[in-house]
Design a protein that fits this description.
Chains: A alpha/beta, B mainly alpha, C alpha/beta
Largest sheet of chain B: none
Structural class of chain B: mainly alpha
Strand content of chain B: under 5%
Shape of chain A: elongated
Oligomer: heterotrimer
Distance between the termini of chain A: 91 Å
Radius of gyration of chain B: 21 Å
Number of strands of chain B: 0
Helix content of chain B: over 70%
Order of helices and strands of chain B: HHHHHHHH
Bound molecules: adenosine-5'-diphosphate, magnesium ion
Structural class of chain A: alpha/beta
Largest interface: A-B, 25 and 29 residues
Chain lengths: ~160, ~260, ~270
């Protein structure tokens, strides 16, 4: 009887822990990590990546399709290059597509947005290891203000 | 010269103590498992160490989560960033407060009880008596308590974290009016299963190991007098808590930098 | 002494020339002790002289610095851990405090060594437990928890546990200390009847001269880090050593002085005054 009571209470303890774990998995953590399944790697070079970080999301039309996996500088002019993993579910991105560093909201986190390009004969789809040909750099607030003042001066 | 000699002597003593503690631990957990005999003992300790600590863990978790919700809101609302309340509450609980506060409470609640119990068994000759009955007290008394502590503390930390997030949710969303959908979705966007949840679990496994080990060793080597037992109990809480905070710094530096 | 008188004595336990230290404190310097098989041997001596230590040496919980501790032909200090544990199944010890496991009922305490060391089915174990409890007069108390027992009952329950596996040797550490006269009488009777009915060899550690001398067949007296005398109780009562006589007759002054070493009393008083 004593043993039975102990077993039941330990059972309750274990069950409660499982509930907590499921809650953390489904409600709290990003359970659908897009790069968990099979994925392929693309890269893009920018003039300026702003506040982009490793693990920042990559989105098409607001839907997350991958994550930034690596950021480094390349060549004599130290051009920033961003590597990203994209889920193989989305493997029909044409080489004419444009990738931009975007900001969610006014002060929110930065992410990569892919704008799919036109598809035509002779246009290839991007494959593992390919690089985007068109990219838009991050908008840096100071530069924007500078440009704005400059154009005001022109008028 | 005396100072250096003293330093040398106390370092040697500390090393000797750690060696003895390691030997005790190895002797109690190494050996051929006897599931039929050890499982009921383990269950009993899961009850004593785990189930009996649940209430204090759940209540503390709830309150700490509620305080986080309140404090976080008052700070974030000034920047118009109260949407970030969800990740703030979740990340601080998952990465730090869940494992650390659980370990500290565990050292005070279960650790001190383990030390006192084993110290008392030594003082009343129950351990000697086991030895004379050809039963190894390390396998019989220390081992089930070690496993129960090592397993139940991470479980308690998960409960603490989950309840804490709910506490933050009640205060932030239900009381202060942060948007319900934003609270969860922004949280999901910034909490990562492996980096945040799993690292928290790893932390609490390390804390569980250290605190349980300290508690058992202090009890096993307590002077068999009432002063000896009370000193050992105090020492478990002090040493255990300091060890948790020290390891927390090291682990945080490794994991999150 | 009496094994030198030519009697053929079969000893279950024999200590020869044992030296033992606790840190820097010397406890024994060349102790010799014989425990005849099937008899009740008493070890007596003032508190702190190392009587409990002697039992722990026999049980292998402590190792002597040098000398031999022989139990039924085995050198206890030289045994491996496994061999020692095997040997301990043949002996048992009744600790000073009883040492009942506080988280088990009395019955479970008695069943514990049986369940640990045999594969008997539960019903048979329960029967044995009842028999052992009946032997100490506690069959009705099997369901109680150890903290519900009086001091005398706790010691008897511990005795039932100690005889659970029918050991060859049973060691009693101060079984009479702190007992009222009635339970003292019960324990004396139990020790004697267990020894006779089960053919046990018993060692009693005690400083209660009256009770111990009454039931012992063989007495050893420890003083000054040695066994100063051993033999049948009658032979010791008129032993040539003044120390032995002082101890056995409970005289307050003698070779063990009443006064702790001090300088001259009068000088001491005068020094304070001046
Ligand atoms: N664990 C220990 N550590 C150090 N000294 C001890 C320990 N146990 C006993 N002693 C010392 O050994 C001596 C003998 O102890 P013991 O055998 O318990 O005496 P007693 O004859 O009263 O049973 C005592 O002087 C005691 O102070
Ligand atoms: Mg003693």
């Amino acid at each position: 009887m004593e043993t039975r009571k102990i077993e039941i209470l330990v059972g309750v303890f274990v069950a409660a822990t499982i509930v907590a774990l499921v809650f953390l998995a489904l409600r709290v953590a990003s359970n659908t990590d897009i790069t968990r399944g099979s994925s392929y790697t693309l890269s893009a070079s920018f003039d300026n990546i702003g506040g982009l970080k490793v693990r920042s999301p990559v989105k098409i039309g607001g839907v997350t399709v991958g994550r930034v996996t690596n950021i480094y500088l390349e060549g004599d002019y130290y051009e920033p290059v961003v590597e990203m993993q994209i889920s193989t579910t989305y493997d029909q991105i044409p080489e004419t597509s444009t990738v931009s560093v975007l900001t969610s909201g006014l002060l929110g986190e930065q992410y990569l947005g892919i704008e799919p390009g036109f598809i035509d004969e002779g246009i290839m789809m991007l494959e593992n290891g390919d690089r985007f040909m068109n990219s838009n750099s991050a908008m840096v607030l100071e530069e924007l203000i500078g440009q704005f003042l400059f154009s005001q001066g022109d008028n | 010269m005396d100072v250096i000699a003293n330093l040398g002597r106390s370092s040697l003593n500390i090393l000797r103590g750690m060696g003895a503690a390691l030997i005790m631990l190895l002797q109690s957990i190494i050996g051929k498992p006897q599931p039929r005999k050890s499982f009921p003992l383990f269950m009993r300790q899961m009850y004593v160490v785990g189930v009996q600590s649940m209430l204090i863990i759940l209540i503390s978790g709830l309150f700490i989560g509620m305080v986080l919700g309140l404090q976080g809101y008052t700070i974030l609302v000034d920047f118009g960033a109260e949407q970030a309340l969800g990740p703030m509450v979740a990340l601080s609980l998952l990465r730090e407060l869940g494992p650390v506060v659980t370990a500290l409470l565990f050292a005070g609640r279960a650790g001190s009880a383990l030390t006192a119990e084993i110290g008392l068994m030594r003082a009343t000759e129950q351990l000697s008596s086991l030895e004379m009955m050809a039963v190894d007290p390390l396998r019989r008394v220390v081992s089930p308590r070690f496993w129960a502590g090592f397993i139940s503390m991470p479980m308690l930390a998960l409960l603490f974290t989950a309840v804490g997030i709910l506490g933050g949710y009640f205060v932030g969303v239900q009381w202060l009016g942060v948007d319900d959908g934003a609270f969860w979705s922004v949280m999901q966007a910034s909490v990562d299963w492996r980096d945040d949840v799993m690292n928290g679990v790893i932390k609490s496994l390390v804390f569980a190991f250290v605190v349980t080990w300290i508690a058992l060793y202090k009890g096993y080597t307590a002077e068999p007098t009432s002063e000896g037992i009370s000193a050992a109990t105090t020492s478990t809480v002090v040493t255990g808590s300091l060890a948790v905070l020290g390891f927390d710094f090291v682990l945080t530096a490794i994991m999150f930098s | 002494m009496y094994d030198q008188k030519g009697c053929t004595v079969d000893n279950l336990v024999e200590l020869k020339d044992v030296y033992f230290n606790r840190g820097n404190t010397v406890i024994y310097e060349g102790v010799n002790l014989q425990v005849p098989r099937g008899k009740i041997t008493a070890i007596m001596g003032p508190s702190g002289c190392g009587k409990t230590t002697m039992l722990r040496l026999i049980g292998g919980q402590l190792k002597p610095r040098s000398g031999s501790v022989d139990f039924a032909g085995h050198q206890v200090p030289e045994l491996s851990r496994g061999e020692l544990y095997e040997l301990r199944k043949r002996m048992s010890m009744l600790f000073q405090s009883g040492a009942l496991f506080t988280d088990m009922s009395v019955s479970d305490n008695v069943a514990f060594p049986i369940l640990e060391h045999t594969k008997l089915p539960r019903e048979i174990v329960d029967t044995i437990v009842k028999m052992k409890l009946q032997a100490v007069g506690l069959r009705g108390a099997g369901g109680l928890q150890p903290d519900e027992l009086s001091g005398g009952m706790a010691r008897r329950a511990a005795l039932a546990r100690a005889i659970a596996l029918d050991p060859e040797l049973i060691m009693y550490d101060e079984p009479f200390t702190g007992q009222d006269p009635i339970s003292m009488g019960m324990i004396v009777k139990l020790i004697r009847s267990l020894n006779q009915t089960l053919g046990l060899t018993s060692i009693i550690v005690s400083h209660d001269i009256h009770e111990t001398m009454g039931i012992a067949d063989h007495v050893a007296i420890i003083a000054n880090k040695q066994v100063v005398a051993q033999g049948p109780p009658q032979a010791l009562l008129d032993h040539e050593s003044a120390l032995v006589r002082q101890f056995l007759n409970g005289e307050p002054d003698g070779p063990v002085p009443f006064h702790y070493q001090a300088n001259n009393y009068l000088d001491d008083l005068m020094a304070r005054g001046g």
